[in-house]
């Protein structure tokens, strides 16, 4: 059994062929798609976060809105770039959004992906102190965020406060949302950061690309990353069971519209590339899947990383609209998942 959700990049562009021609369109349709996904039995609605782009950016208003319109589905990010975040303000936003959704937030955080601009975090007021990199800053911000959502008290109270303090001694961030600390995921692009995430007690979110560390097929490298994460989790002695998600582009071809959009994507292979200016360097990108359900089942049966994960996020082409993307998810849930034991 697996949890199956969608991952939307939240693109919008003022083009006549796009169903999301404005930021307003993509925000409203993201809410509608989450509602539709819940209705067809999907388990999660996740959203990418990108700055300086015609894509979804600040996630918490959207997550809170979805939380207010749904009742079961998990609501998450994949991922929030922690180079851009004030961890204390983010903790307040996250606590409020989690309470609105009655504890359904699943926040993916990370160092972030390559940017649209050079050193964009500097315009947000952040930079690396001497002797540190922005990757260090992202990890430090994440550690602070984890501490404060876990109830850390660190601020000296004013002896003459405007309102009575709720308890004696140092104060912490409010609101607190019980259980949120266990629902934070780290987007790991390398084996080393997957191990670090396990040691820090975060779930693992592994995307459609990772550092090419062995030359093996993508799904094998990703499964090895998952194994290292789980070994490190066990070694760290955490009491709860860790969760692991992987992302895939998967399209079951059942209608003329499916063939028109994705019929040409059949039998694609992993791709090797270099992410310029990124410490990942040489990266491997996982293949896309597009085939008739019977063929798709056999292809996916051999994916070692999907087999090792408990959560599968389907990347959706959000610019094709809510109705079509609901159909994409329903195809997988009805025609593919049962045969693979995911449902």
From TrEMBL:
Luciferase-like domain sequence ranges? 9-259
What the entry lists under Pfam families is as follows: Bac_luciferase
GO cellular component terms, A-Z:
cytosol
Q: Which GO terms describe its molecular function?
A: oxidoreductase activity, acting on paired donors, with incorporation or reduction of molecular oxygen
The superkingdom of the source organism is Bacteria
Name used for this protein in its record: LLM class flavin-dependent oxidoreductase
Which organism is this protein's natural source? Microbacterium mitrae
């Amino acid at each position: 059994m697996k949890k199956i959700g969608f991952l939307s990049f939240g693109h919008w562009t003022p083009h006549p062929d796009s169903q999301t021609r404005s930021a307003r369109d993509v925000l409203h349709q993201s809410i509608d798609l989450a509602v539709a996904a819940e209705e067809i039995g999907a388990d999660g609605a996740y959203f990418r976060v990108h700055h300086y782009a015609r894509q979804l950016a600040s996630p918490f208003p959207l997550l809170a809105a979805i939380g207010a319109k749904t009742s079961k589905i998990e609501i998450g990010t994949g991922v929030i770039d922690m180079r851009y975040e004030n961890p204390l303000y983010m903790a307040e936003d996250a606590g409020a959004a989690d309470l609105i959704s009655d504890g359904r937030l699943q926040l993916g955080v990370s160092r972030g992906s390559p940017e649209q601009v050079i050193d964009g975090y500097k315009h947000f007021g952040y930079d690396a102190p001497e002797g540190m990199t922005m990757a260090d800053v992202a990890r430090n911000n994440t550690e602070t965020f984890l501490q404060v959502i876990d109830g850390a008290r660190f601020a000296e109270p004013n002896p003459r406060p405007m309102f009575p303090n709720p308890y004696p001694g140092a104060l912490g961030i409010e609101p607190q949302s019980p259980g949120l600390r266990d629902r934070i995921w780290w987007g790991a692009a390398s084996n080393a950061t997957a191990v670090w995430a396990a040691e820090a007690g975060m779930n693992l979110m592994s995307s459609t690309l990772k550092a090419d560390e062995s030359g093996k097929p993508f799904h094998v490298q990703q499964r090895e990353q998952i194994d290292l994460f789980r070994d490190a989790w066990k070694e760290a002695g955490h009491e709860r069971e860790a969760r692991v998600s992987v992302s895939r582009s998967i399209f079951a071809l059942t209608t003329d519209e499916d063939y028109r959009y994705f019929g040409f994507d059949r039998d694609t292979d992993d791709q090797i590339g270099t992410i310029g200016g990124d410490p990942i360097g040489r990266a491997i990108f996982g293949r896309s899947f597009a085939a008739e359900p019977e063929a798709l089942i056999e292809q996916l049966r051999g994916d070692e990383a999907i087999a090792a994960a408990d959560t599968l996020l389907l990347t959706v082409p959000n610019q094709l609209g809510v109705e079509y993307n609901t159909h994409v998810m329903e195809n997988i849930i009805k025609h593919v998942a049962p045969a693979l034991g995911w449902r």
